[in-house]
Every structure is written in C-alpha cells, then in structure tokens.
Design brief:
With about 260 residues, the chain is an alpha+beta fold. The chain has two domains: about 120 residues, Diaminopimelate Epimerase, Chain A, domain 1, CATH 3.10.310; about 120 residues, Diaminopimelate Epimerase, Chain A, domain 1 (Roll). It contains six helices and 18 strands. A hairpin with a 4-residue loop joins strand 4 and strand 5. The chain is globular, with a radius of gyration of 18 Å.
Amino acid sequence: MAQDYVVVDAFTAEPWGGNPAAVCVLERPADVGWMRAVAREMNLSETAFLVPRADGWDLRWFTPTVEVDLCGHATLASAHALWASGRLAADAVARFHTRSGVLTAARDGDWIRMDFPAITARPTAAVPGLADALGATPVAVATSAHSILAELADPAAVRALRPDFARLAALPHEGGAVIVTAAADAPGADFVSRFFAPAKGIPEDPATGSAHCALGPWWAAKLGRTSLVGHQVSARGAVVRVVVRGERVDLLGQAVTVARGTLLH
C-alpha cells in the first residue's frame, strides 16, 4: 500500500541547511523489517515513523543501519510535519512516546521547543585511541551511555577535523558516537560542535539534537549559565538553542519541509 512521506530540514530556517529527516506518518504500526528497509532507502541519518495513539504519537527513529534510542532532529522534523499537514492543531503540543520516554514539542514563536532528557557526560582520564582517531588531542574527555564527548582547545580545531572513521567506529564505547566541541569564538554562539557516529552508519551527522542534551549541561557547568546557543559546524551548519533545567533540557530549533513523496512498496 502506498505511504506518503516528507523530508524536513531540521535545526535550520533555510532549505538545504541543518539535518534532513524523512518522516512517515502511519495509520498503524509497521513491520520492523519494512521500517529498516525504508530507512536504508532514504539513506538519511534518521527516518522517523509515527503512529497515532490516544494521547499522542508513538515515534521510532532508524538510521540506515540501526534503530536509535534518542534523536532530536527527527523529533523536531516530526513535530513540524504534524503541524504542517494539519494532523495537529497549530497551538497543540506534540506528544511523542519513544524509547527514551515521553518527549514533547511546542511552537515558540518561529522556533520549536522540545523537552528532552539531560545527559550527563562524566569526565574520564582518556579513551584509548580517541586522539589518533580524531587526529587531534582533546583538552578534556567525558563519557555517557550515549557517546564520548571530547573538548578541543579552540573552535578552529573542531572545524578542521578530518577524523579516521574506521578508527572512530572501533573505539571501545557502547554508545558508538563521538561529540567534539569547543568554546565559540564569535558572537551569537556559546560553543561549537560536530558529531560522528560511523558505528551507527552515520560518519558525520549535520545537526544533532541528542548531542546537545549532553553539550548543554557540559557548557552550562563551564560557563555558569543555563541558556546557551550551540552552532554545529558541519558542512550544512545548524543552530541549536539549549536551556538546561536540571534533569531535563529544552532544545529549540527551526525546520522547513523540502520534499514530499510516496513510497510504493
């Protein structure tokens, strides 16, 4: 049966920036094998699948190779798609049931504000092979269940990274992802970052909401304030506003629909 989908650029106000996510709004739960196949076909960092329920939507995210527990940009894209299609009233809160609990999204002026869990990255002495894989020596390293966080001395070093993806994928960490960050060097941002997850089929993610669940608390502790702006300095670029609220964070971003299509199988 035919299934419509949209592609939404998330964490950007302009087409062709941020991170594209495909969004499929289903009438009923789909076979996992089919969802995996669709995600491989889309070949985007995440494809989101939504199924309506009495108190919101079930939401699952798939990379081209695996299902993931938490994804910010595809959640932002899903909320945008629901409002844009009229499936959800413009003033209604989008409520998503996910592997990471209930996540919500609401319009906030020209932005979308999402309520996500905060992630605490705990400092560690070193991760064997990390510096060689990155081609840069971090000034600080921390880990969480989701990722390795590496802070570099300056933002130019973050922008210049050309990591060895095979080595990154082989690092001894269950989360399979690496966030690289540094304090910002220009007005309008507090920190910059890049995100790599080759072990999950994503060499570099252009814009990563879930990474900011860790980056927000990390930089809030360093800078002494809870409202922050992050620039993800991938080739596409992205802006993520973060408000740290104890065990939760607000992630704010913008989104734009760039394509619509129909799956025939």
